[in-house]
Amino acid sequence: MDKAKRKEVEISKDSFSYLHVAGKKHDKNIFFFHATGFNAETYMPFFLKLGELLDNQYSIFALDQRGHGLSKASAIPSELTSWQTYFEDGKNFTKKFLSSENILMGHSMGGVVAARLAYDFEDKIEKSILIDPVLQPQSLKFQIPFFNISNKSFISLLNFFKKNRASEMINNAKKRRSVFSDKEEIFKHYQGRGAFTNWPEESLKAYINGGVIEEENKINLSCAPEWEAKTFAVSYAARTNFIKKLSKQIYVPFASESSTLSPEVRDLLSGNANFLFEKIDGSHFFPMEEKDLICSKISTFIRQND
């Protein structure tokens, strides 16, 4: 199997970039969706390991979401009012490549996108893998109305009413440095720090390779801080009631530390026999930190009942 090839696709008159890892079978596809602020290439070591464990039978399609990676689709923060934008982009991307056997997979926000598509394409999906998805009780029980107000005002409201991890992530995203002189400077800036504390070099370099734009002797991170912050902010308006209606097999590995999958949601969904939850030792970024372990567990899940 060749390594991933970068390709372009038009979705709703916008240009999107995606990675395609060709498998041996043309009728077996895995669709993968990345976390907020990341890009498809971040998961290249993960894709290659998983492909190896699956005997390279599956082709992998991994989209750079709007405002992320190398996709050129319009990404104006003031126009992003909910994750419905990501759901629609993911749906239009997936339906272009659906085959006879399809598996959905995603990490963090991408796990919620994958869940939504499992609902939309229920008759065409075999299984889904939701890797530490961002699911909180309020998104299943009720929605906070979101008005198209400024990031600053909305973030202030969030901080006033509820001090939580999401509001911290919003503020951190807005303050994130995004301009560097070269890739080496980015690597040195992030290595061993923050979310990247326990990342292996190969994953950090993959994140950088797939998430920068070179302009006038400088490099910009392609996911603008304002877009990343707005994506975190509108997670409060995500509508995820559909997840209770999923009827196919779903594997949900979640982090032992700082998981974005709340215990309340796990309890709520535990009565659905289609859901298989498993705690993975590590942080929210265990697909990078524990690549071999999680790829082994996912490949076992995919092979079950084959």
Q: What's a quick, concise take on this entry?
A:
The chain is an alpha/beta fold. It has a domain at 5-147 and 238-303: Rossmann fold (3-Layer(aba) Sandwich), CATH 3.40.50.1820.
Characterization of the model:
By secondary structure, this protein is α/β, with parallel strands linked by helices. It has a domain at 5-147 and 238-303: Rossmann fold, CATH 3.40.50.1820. It is built from 12 helices and 11 strands. The chain has helices at 44-53, 84-95, 109-120, 137-141, 151-161, 165-175, 183-190, 201-209, 225-233, 263-269, 286-289, 291-303, and strands at residues 5-11, 14-21, 28-33, 59-63, 101-107, 127-131, 179-180, 212-215, 218-221, 249-255, 275-280. It has an 8-stranded mixed β-sheet, with helices on both faces. The protein has a 3-stranded antiparallel β-sheet with strand order 7-9-8. Strand 3, helix 1 and strand 4 (59-63) form a beta-alpha-beta unit. Helix 1 crosses helix 12 (291-303), helix 6 (165-175) runs antiparallel to helix 9 (225-233) and helix 7 crosses helix 8 (201-209). The longest helix is centred in the last third of the chain and has 13 residues, at 291-303. It is globular and about 55 Å long.
